[in-house]
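FORM 12-B: Structure-to-Sequence Request
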């Protein structure tokens, strides 16, 4: 079947938050005490970040479907509610384009695979493994090219770039024995 490919949404990263800790592990920068308490409470209760409906509406707008936007009538949205809306939104867009499936390609979602597997149990996850030196060089160039973007804040040192890549590889390899997870090297794809 045809597959519908959309731009990176960062949906799970934005829904759950906890990005610094998930992206960098032990190398994460310390958050304020109150922010850390709110983060832990939200995660324990499985409540999404407060702006997740806005994010979902942005996805609908970006995909040319403003009619699929939802009014934000709730202060809190559970992970299950947010993911259900996200999947329904993307299923609807793919179906409208006569595609049997959709592809979401946010690299940082490798750090949210527990939640993806919990809430999207039929998902097939393709891990594309890229050479670490090429990734580090690409991140460094992105940080220099877009100094006001998130790249320059996240990857401000070579050490943080290396820590990020190492954490991504560890998180990816942890799923190598799981059903519905497939691994391929990037350099094999481009040959």
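FORM 12-B RESPONSE
SEQUENCE OUT:
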């Amino acid at each position: 079947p045809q597959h519908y490919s959309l731009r990176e949404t960062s949906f799970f990263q934005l829904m759950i938050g906890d990005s610094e800790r998930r992206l960098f592990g032990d190398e994460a920068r310390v958050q304020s005490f109150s922010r850390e308490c709110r983060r832990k409470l939200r995660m324990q209760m499985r409540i999404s970040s407060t702006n997740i409906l806005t994010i979902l509406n942005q996805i609908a707008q970006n995909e040319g479907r403003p009619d699929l936007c939802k009014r934000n009538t709730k202060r809190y949205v559970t992970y299950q509610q947010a993911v259900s809306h996200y999947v329904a939104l993307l299923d609807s867009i793919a179906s409208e384009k006569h595609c049997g499936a959709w592809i979401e390609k946010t690299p940082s979602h490798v750090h949210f695979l527990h939640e993806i597997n919990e809430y999207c149990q039929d998902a097939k996850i393709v891990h594309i493994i890229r050479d670490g030196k090429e990734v580090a060089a690409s991140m460094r160039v992105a940080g220099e090219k877009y100094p006001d973007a998130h790249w320059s804040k996240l990857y401000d040192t070579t050490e943080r770039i290396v820590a990020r890549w190492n954490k991504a590889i560890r998180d990816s390899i942890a799923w190598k024995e799981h059903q519905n997870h497939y691994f391929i090297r990037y350099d094999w794809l481009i040959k």
